[in-house]
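Problem 12. The chain below contains 241 residues. Write out its predicted structure in token notation.
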Amino acid sequence: MSRPTRAMVMAAGLGTRMRPLTDDKPKPLVKVAGKTLIDHALDKLVQAGVTMAVVNVHYKAEMLKDHLARRHDIEIRYSEETSELLGTGGGVVKALPHFDGQPFFITNSDTVWVEGVGRALDRMVARWDADEMDGLLLLASMVTALGFEGMGDFNMDACGHISRGEERRLTPFAYPGVQIVHPRLFDGAPKGAFSTNRMWDVAIEKGRLFGVRLDGVWIHVGTPEAVRDAEEFLADAYLVT
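Solution.
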């Protein structure tokens, strides 16, 4: 299977939980260990061979565009959501024409992880099979998900099939915000704003949603306190790659 060379970076959120750090900037421009969150994400995509990324924008969009104009190692396109936030699903649907029907990465602009053995995105590419999958999610073990306060998101069987956990029950894996999808994942999607969770549930019913375990440590950076915790962890562990 050929390697996906395009990606979508989800950067249109308001960053409400990150205030006051987001009072004067969008959340993707908050720095962790001296580098903006969105640059952490884009650097990993470039390492994985991605040459074009679509970034959706809303809050303080021009500030984000000015920052990204400094990058010359990847083509950046923009999907404007200045008039209406479309959610994780609606935002991708609006950007689908940029991907010409081919599989692509989707990554949150605020996900940071420390690699384990090998690079996570390379391992995802090696596992990706468009014939049997509509989506392939990177999954972080709850044991090594720093700063994540939820009960987990998914179970995963020995073949990599993903399923939802029971309500109010701890599940083994959290979703750190990175996936490879085929555009058909969004076939029959509703119009306007909606969550990708709706399309994941359809793929789960078809047995076409899979996962790859992150062999490393995911750092959930959702609040100002989490930024400090992430920087302390990175200082005490090893450099982000």
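Discussion. The mean pLDDT is 89. Students who got a different answer should revisit the alignment rule from Section 12.3.
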